[in-house]
Design goal:
The chain is mostly beta strands. The protein is about 10% helix and about 25% strand. It has a 5-stranded mixed β-sheet, with no helix packed on it.
Length: about 80
């Protein structure tokens, strides 16, 4: 998994980035909780953490750390 990027604002409180927007970070924050706090339906989006895809079943077991970058996107299905 890729490493988180340093926060571009020195002395900022710990935070993570969700689709380019800063979100507060706390020690027990995991990916599923971040999505829920943002009001995103878990089945409606796919996720990547620091550039690596995170499957839905792993979101509750994926801790977030200060500086982590989370991207959401709509999966494309079909043939």
């Amino acid at each position: 998994m890729a490493e988180p990027l340093p926060d571009p604002v020195p002395d900022a409180p710990p935070r993570v980035w969700l689709d380019g927007q800063a979100q507060p970070w706390h020690a027990d924050l995991h990916l599923a909780a971040l999505l829920q706090a943002a009001g995103l339906a878990p089945d409606a989006v796919a996720t990547a953490l620091n550039g690596d895809f995170v499957p839905r079943p792993r979101r509750h077991h994926t801790p977030l750390h200060p500086g982590d970058r989370v991207l959401t996107f709509h999966p494309i299905v079909g043939g």
